[in-house]
Amino acid sequence: MSSRRKFLRTSALTLTASGFYPLLTRANDQGFVAPQPDSLQLGIAGYTFHNIPMDQGIAMMQRVGVSALSIKDFYLPLDSSPEKIEEVLGKFRAAGIQVYAAGVIYMKTEGEVDRAFDYAKKIGVNMIVGVPDYELLPYAEQKVKSSNIRLAIHNHGPEDKLYPAPKDVFDRIRNMDGRIGLCFDIGHGARAGADPARSVIEFAPRIFDLHVKDISAAGTGERAIEIGRGIIDFPALVRALKKIKFAGRCSIEFEMDTKDPLPGIAESVGFFRGVVKTLA
Questions:
Q1: How far is CA 184 from CA 3, 163, 253, in A?
Q2: How far apart are CA 233 and CA 236, in angstroms?
Q3: How many CA atoms within 13 Å lie on the side-chain side of 195?
Q4: Residuewise pLDDT in 10s, the chain (280 residues)
Q5: Within-domain flag for 26
Q6: Domain of residue 143, CATH code
Q7: Taking a C-beta distance cutoff of 8 angstroms, is the pair 154, 132 a contact?
Q8: DSSP character string of 114-137
Q9: Is 276 in a helix, a strand, or coil?
């Protein structure tokens, strides 16, 4: 544990501190940080901004140089009119941000499956991050086949009665269409006893999306924390992602300080990028 922490502190933070922490002191600077090329593509999971107005969330993404978002329905409701869709997506386009997926969307009826796929088609994304009930998986598979929209099923940890860990998703979909896969939430996976790096290798062909976070401890009493301050072994995770040539998004999902998340987002993005660059 101590050697891992030393690696993370001396290598990753050294690379990133000079690039990201000044962002937090430039509140009146009209210029934004241009996204830097990464060997692993970064994004933001929309839940990060559930207490943040949309314009402010966009500004935060620009400040940390992340230009891809998995959008949640509090920014763009599932029943949005074409005018509302164009208004919201137009703001992200104008800011240089790609809305690459939608979700998490829960599906408990066939009607809710239909609504999710119709929504994805209307907003122009080719992936839904979703949680369909077990009995709806065959129907969801039909929708995947007819629409060519991928479904990435999200795991939510030990409290989740459907999909606690990535294996719980994989075991349900392993014989289904290859466009049904996982949105692997590494924090919730670790809480459910899954090793993130090992899971990436084990379920590689079906991991479409990643929700990246850190947790303070395993088991009871854990809490979300800035990436690099908790128990997840990020060098091992990054090595595994590079080994499988992961081509999806590594989307930061920051769940601390939800009314003032920018410092934690910046630290988490900077730390993750630092590990990636250190292991290049």
A1: 27, 11, 12
A2: 6
A3: 10
A4: 443 454 445 454 444 433 444 444 443 344 444 444 568 999 999 999 999 999 999 999 999 999 999 999 999 999 999 999 999 999 999 999 999 999 999 999 999 999 999 999 999 999 999 999 999 999 999 999 999 999 999 999 999 999 999 999 999 999 999 999 999 999 999 999 999 999 999 999 999 999 999 999 876 667 889 999 999 999 999 999 999 999 999 999 999 999 999 999 999 999 999 999 999 8
A5: no
A6: 3.20.20.150
A7: no
A8: HHHHHHHHHHT-SEEEEEE-GGGH
A9: helix
Residue 221's region, left for phi above 0, alpha for psi from -120 to 50, else beta, is: left
Which residue in the block uniquely carries the two structure tokens 């920014």? Answer: 75
Distance of CA 24 to the CA centre of its chain: 22
Chain-centre distance for alpha carbon 137: 22
Strands (E) across the chain are located at 41-45, 68-71, 98-107, 127-132, 150-154, 180-185, 207-212, 214-215, 224-225, 249-252
The parent domain of residue 210 ranges over 2-20+45-278
Can you name the residues that pair with 152 across neighbouring β-strands? 129, 181
Q: Is 34 inside any structural domain?
A: no
**DSSP conformation class of 35:** P
Q: Is 247 exposed, middle or buried (0-12, 13-18, 19+ CB in 10 A)?
A: exposed
10: DSSP letter? I
> How far apart (Å, rounded) are the C-alpha atoms in residues 257 and 265?
10
The structure's pTM equals: 0.88
